[in-house]
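If your schedule permits, I should be very grateful for your opinion on a structural question. Kindly check, if you would, that the fold set down in the tokens agrees with what the sequence suggests. Thank you for your consideration; the sequence and its tokens are set out here:
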Amino acid sequence: MFKNVIVKRPCKAMVEGITSAPELGKPDYELALKQHDDYIEALKQCGVAVTVLEADEAYPDSCFVEDTAVITRKCAIISNPGALSRRKEAEVMLPTIKKFFSDDKIEYIKSPGTLEGGDVMMVGDHFYVGRSARTNEEGIRQFIEILEKHGLTGSEVPLELVLHLKTGVNYIENNNMLVSGEFITKPDFEKFNKIIIPEDESYAANCIWVNDKVIVPKGYPTVEKRIKEAGYDVILVDTSEYKKLDGGLSCLSLRF
């Protein structure tokens, strides 16, 4: 069960954030703020304490806090983002992490290793790590070494098409996994009960489990229906403005 969640308010500069889909247009900042309010409210409905950090205009993508750290039940691992414009975001997050973890429980991914939290999926005490354009072989090596030091395990998942691992696969506990695209047939996930996400709703593969509820992006009826059929309470949150920056529900928080 999660007790704490960290989020960061979107800054006005988010409209200039990194995107692979410029055809979707720039985010509407006021609407993004409202959607972020709704996201925080949904998290609170799941029974967690939400730490809300102020917006930081120096970093357009800084609302996507998931990429700055991986928080396990044993330690916090400060990432080293592969996107150069985002590298300092991990440093900026450190004082907040120190409010929850002592120095001996904080670890660091160091250059030339790169790792972004969006490439890490926690399944109990095992962590799947996507090798992507943002997370490299050296970053994964360091990450798994840190996990093993703390009695945890990890394994690499090569990515072919998606930006981050959790763009296309997400674990929602109880052996249930949302899978789309290249992840439907990956042998890494054979042992799980796969909830298949149709191609036209692939964005909604990025849902988050928070204390037996699943937060699902609004506007993807097939995904919503399949998660409800799997026995979960569903909370819908519109993330249209974050989709324009390749962002989804998991990207917007650190949950631990």
